Amino acid sequence: MREHSRCCRNRIIACWPAARTSGSILDMGRWLTKSASLCANLGAILCAGFAIVLLTANGTAASEAGSACGSAALGKARVVAIPDSRTVGLDDGRLVKLAGIEWTVSPDTAKATLSELMLDQPISLKGTATPDRYGRIHAFPSVSGSETPVQYALLERGMAVMGGRPGDKACVDALLGRERAARAARLGLWNSGERQHSADAPNMVLRDRGQFAIVSGRVLSVRESGRLIYVNFGRRWSEDFTVTIAKRNEPTFTQGGLAPKSLSGRDVRVRGFVEERSGPWIEATRPEQFEVSAK
């Protein structure tokens, strides 16, 4: 009892190797159940949530997880700081932004979650070595002892969704698979209804102006004007929800198997940052921003 309590007060990841020494999935499941109960009594809700995803690190799912996202190995380091909800600082001076996802919880909750999961932990990195304009590398970090990127845990708990630029198809499939599992289980945002809207309710979409959201609906028409392609979800173009695609980006969509004109009449789910241009509007730059239902 004391050992499990100490685990919850500190970091459940640090206790995981000891818990898996039995080599039995059943034993690990019992350990997770017991840990979840003890952590709940201690008020450490996140402890149980992240313990669940670590189970995959012991099997073939971990091997798939480790290879799906991240184009290059970027070495190992220790997390020494969480400067904000999007960034972790490493002991070698690098700053890392979690690639492929967007938070759907408050910045304070996101920062606390990163601290709980990663602070003072050794990690391995896969991603892109070239820093962005803020000096951050975009990567998929895995806590030492696991090949599972941290992003998977966040998606599986409904605390994040796949972002607009996740990576190649294998990575998209890996991220969306975990997001859909959380959606099916109605976890996190999928239970609260936050950051997800119907295109038929533009006023509700506008409530997330400036935020990353997911909007679902049927595309009424696809039209071109000037340098933009307009994916219209309503007849009142100045009021209804619209997605725009720059014509210069059309080849990217076509090569990705999604010709913009093919969206007309289709039921879709689109993700991106909500802006206001008369009505609510999302700019799509990558085909991965769309999920299209079968005809």
Automatic annotation (TrEMBL):
The keyword Cell membrane does not apply. It comes from the Bacteria. InterPro entries: SNase_OB-fold_sf, Staphylococal_nuclease_OB-fold. It holds the Pfam family SNase. The chain crosses the membrane at residues 38-57. Residues 109-191 form the TNase-like domain. This is TNase-like domain-containing protein.
